[in-house]
Amino acid sequence: MLIEQEELTIYEVEALHKSIQALYENGNVMVDMSQVRKIDMSVIQLFISAQMTCVRNKKLFQLQNINEELSKILRLCACEFLLGDANG
Predict the structure, then answer these.
(1) What is the CATH architecture of 7-87?
(2) Rounded distance, CA 50 to CA 6, Å?
(3) Which of 24, 29, 34, 69 has its CA 20 to 30 Å from the CA of residue 86?
(4) Phi, psi angle pair for 4, to nearest 5°
């Protein structure tokens, strides 16, 4: 799933949650973050919850194409585990 917004905030969480649920129901959750520059804590919390659910149910959750700006935000929030092996 490609996210086309540059910024994800609490205002996008509900729609993002529904999109992630649909991916989850069909298999693994792969989210292309190449266009995203900023996220807030509500989005990070959603990603953490989605990752935990996927791990618990033996599915893959992966944020892909994370740019340096977004990587820095995740590291500052002590959420570098969301970067995965390729980005961490």
Answers:
(1) 2-Layer Sandwich (3.30)
(2) 21
(3) 24
(4) -95, -10
Three-state DSSP class for residue 74: helix
Query: Could you state, in order of their start, the residue ranges of all structural domains in the chain?
Result: 7-87
**What is the band of 84 on the pLDDT scale with cuts at 50, 70, 90?**
confident
CA atoms within 13 A on the CB side of 81: 11
Sorted by sequence, the CB contacts under 8 Å of residue 53 that are 6+ apart come out as 24, 59, 61
Rounded to whole angstroms, the maximal C-alpha distance in the chain is 32
